[in-house]
Automatic annotation (TrEMBL):
Residue runs in coiled coils: none
Protein name, UniProt field: ABC transporter ATP-binding protein
Organism: Microvirga terrestris
One Pfam family this sequence matches: ABC_tran
Annotated ranges, domain ABC transporter: 2-232
UniProt superkingdom: Bacteria
Membrane spanning residue stretches: none
Keywords: Amino-acid transport, ATP-binding, Nucleotide-binding, Transport
Lineage summary: Bacteria, Pseudomonadati, Pseudomonadota, Alphaproteobacteria, Hyphomicrobiales
SMART domains referenced in this protein's UniProt entry, alphabetically: AAA (SM00382)
Amino acid sequence: MLSVRQLQASYGAAQVLFDISLDVGAGEVVTLLGRNGMGKTTTVRSIMGLLRPRGGEVHFNGAVVTGLAPYRIAQTGIGLVPEGRQIFPTLTVEENLVATASSRTGSRRWTLDAVYDLFPRLKERRSNLGTQLSGGEQQMLAIGRALMTNPKLLILDEATEGLAPLIRAEIWTCLKRLKGERQSILVIDKNVGVLATFADRHVIIEKGRSVWTGTSNELMTDASLKDRYLHV
Ligand SMILES: Nc1ncnc2c1ncn2[C@@H]1O[C@H](COP(=O)(O)OP(=O)(O)OP(=O)(O)O)[C@@H](O)[C@H]1O
């Protein structure tokens, strides 16, 4: 479904990504791991066309999407939950959700009711403005908004950063439920232990290079990986 090959990217003259390769298959949950500043967000931004890659290729559903405008990449069926949520603060919850609604990619799975079923709290808050929501509610809204585009692939950058433990658990439950429906997901998060309970594969990024990929079992049984690449 998503295939990234030898991706390179820079901010101005500073090259940040040197060689990122990763795959997400249909129905798979894949994580992007690595310490702060290693290039996870930049990888996501490059996949989405928010940063123009200076080398390498991004294939999605068999087509090369490298270098397309972000809206065109989104239209191919990739839904992004960006770092920092970026919901529309002056719109209500419901307006935020409706603003992105689309069945362009063929699937009509995600409607307002379906999102409210996944996150009942959003239904309670449907008339509240974005600014009136807690961090957890904003993250639920950001996920709901991405789902309303009926994406073939959902990408979450920092899925639970800064959220209280109970809210985190709700987000994990949501992701597990989506996996149960065979939603393809690429997720960045630091909670490796929880991710390993339901993700299929993991990709570790170190200084702009994808240096390891493997299953949850392989990740959890190789303690040296965590020491080398994940501990601060
Ligand atoms: N807009 C920018 N301009 C210049 N350099 C940037 C910019 N954004 C990120 N960088 C640099 O690029 C490198 C990779 O950053 P990136 O945000 O992709 O890392 P990350 O793995 O997502 O880390 P984090 O977990 O802290 O978000 C870092 O050295 C960072 O300082």
